[in-house]
Amino acid sequence: MNTTAIIAGIVCLVIGAAVASLLARMKGSSMLADAQAKVDEASAQAIRIEEEARRNAESAKKEAVLEAKEEILQLKQASEAEEKQRKSELRSLESRIMQREESLDHRNESLDKREHQLSSLQGQLDRQRADLNEVMERQTTELERISALTREDAHRELLDRVRQDTIKEEAQILRESDQRVRAEASKNAREILSLAIQRCAADHVGEITVTSVHIPSDDLKGRIIGREGRNIRTFEQVSGVSLVIDDTPETVVLSSFDPVRRETARVALENLIADGRIHPARIEEMYKKAEELVQQRVQEAGEQAAFDAGIHDLHPEIVKTLGALRYRTSFGQNVLQHSREVSELCGVMASELGVDIAKAKRAGLLHDLGKAIDHEFEGPHAVLGADLARRYGERPEIVHAIEAHHADVEPNTVLDVLVQAADAVSAARPGARRESAESYIKRLEKLEEISNSHEGVERTYAMQAGRELHVMVEPEKISDAEATVLAHDIAKQIEDEMDYPGQVRVVVIRESRAVDIAK
């Protein structure tokens, strides 16, 4: 309504101004009639404008009211939905609380029953203890009467006799213990090795002296060879690696006994193929970049291996040589991974034997150092590695352990023997080297064969890489007591007839079922 009044006032002011202007301009009575007509027309127009403004204001007011009602309705619906959801959550929570209370009530009842039973049993035990004490007192009194000795005298005489017998038995026990310790020394050593094996596991990657490089198409072979073979000759001269290009589709082969050089050549060739520009100058440039990259990887691998073993004072050249073992394999076993595993095994066994753990892990990590340079120098890798370690200031006991781990010199310390044992365990573990897979399968088959040879055995399963044997027996032929004896017999036969790392756990399983039919 305020808007309508304002509009009407504005219209009146406009009309008044127009009328005043017209009146001022009139100079005669003839003009008054025309002015009056215009005033009437303006008044009518003002009334129409006022009505239209009033209608627009009313329409806007109604629209605003409708929008407000609609918004209120939406808020109300959202509030009701939220309230409904909360009520549902409260009901669910209340149900869970009631279930929990019922469970607690059942548990309290069970505890009350157990407490009552314990109280009853305690009372019975107290009565039985009192009866037993009474009987013992009567027996003691009767014994004193019969023997004509008091309790103290009988106790003193008994102690004297026991002391004399104990001295003889003690000497016999000492002799037997000494013999038993000597007999079980080798068994204890096997147990220490088995613990070390079970606490150390590693993955191995198999590689050989050649590396295959995939190329996008056979058309690239001609570009790699180059005009009159200049590209391939340049590549082989720069890298020192033989590049074999044959009829194998989309593949070329790099061959070299130096694993680091072969890896450098692989990286350079792959970068050349990706770049597309293959010519002598580009080959030399790419090889230099690849050499820098591989040397950086070698350095990082050596530093990481030393860090994992907890060794922080190795000579930089030893770290670099150690990292080169990343690209060296022996019978399909990665030598750097093997060295890390030997270091871990040495540390575990040293902790069991009370030997310096840090020194044992250091010797284990460096024991195959010579394999990184055995393609450059003549001689056993153990001797080469010992010479290298000696040259860069390693302690004499570490150098001797490296040199003695393949008996190139006589082992004369516990550290030497630890490195020998850890090296053998890491190499002989099933799956570590390719050549041991067949003997590993034969060992599992032998375990099952020994178990199945016993009477009453139904099925046998070798589990956990041969460390556990599950034996299923026929319940009508083997009783519970006989099952215990059978487990002992199988374990004894395995010890007598087989050689194996660690220990084998024999589990005899006897299952009996009673079935009846209700008619």
Task: Compose a concise summary of this entry.
By secondary structure, this protein is mainly α. The protein is 70% helix and 7% strand.
How would you sum up this structure, described in words?
The protein is mostly helical and 519 residues long. Helices cover 70% and strands 7% of the residues. It contains 15 helices and eight strands. Helix 9 (335-353) crosses helix 13 (414-428). The protein starts with a helix and ends in a 9-residue tail after the last strand. Residues 201-207 have low confidence and may be disordered.
Name a few traits of the molecule.
three-stranded antiparallel sheet; single chain; mainly alpha; 15 helices
Rg measurement, Å? 49 Å
- What is the mean pLDDT? 80
Structural class: mainly alpha
Beta fraction: 5-15%
What's the total count of β strands? 8
From the N-terminal CA to the C-terminal CA, the straight-line distance is 95 Å
| Shape verdict | flat
Largest sheet, spatial ordering of strands: 1-3-2
Q: Name the helicity range.
A: 55-70%
> Could you list the spans in which at least 5 consecutive residues all have pLDDT below 50?
201-207
Tally of individual helices: 15
The helix/strand order is HHHEHHEEHHHEEHHHHHHEEHE
Biggest β-sheet strands, sense, barrel = 3 strands, antiparallel
Q: What is the topology?
A:
Blueprint: H1 2-25, H2 29-147, H3 151-198, E1 210-214, H4 219-225, H5 230-239, E2 242-244, E3 251-255, H6 259-275, H7 280-308, H8 316-324, E4 329-330, E5 333-334, H9 335-353, H10 357-366, H11 381-391, H12 396-404, H13 414-428, H14 437-452, E6 457-463, E7 468-473, H15 480-497, E8 505-510
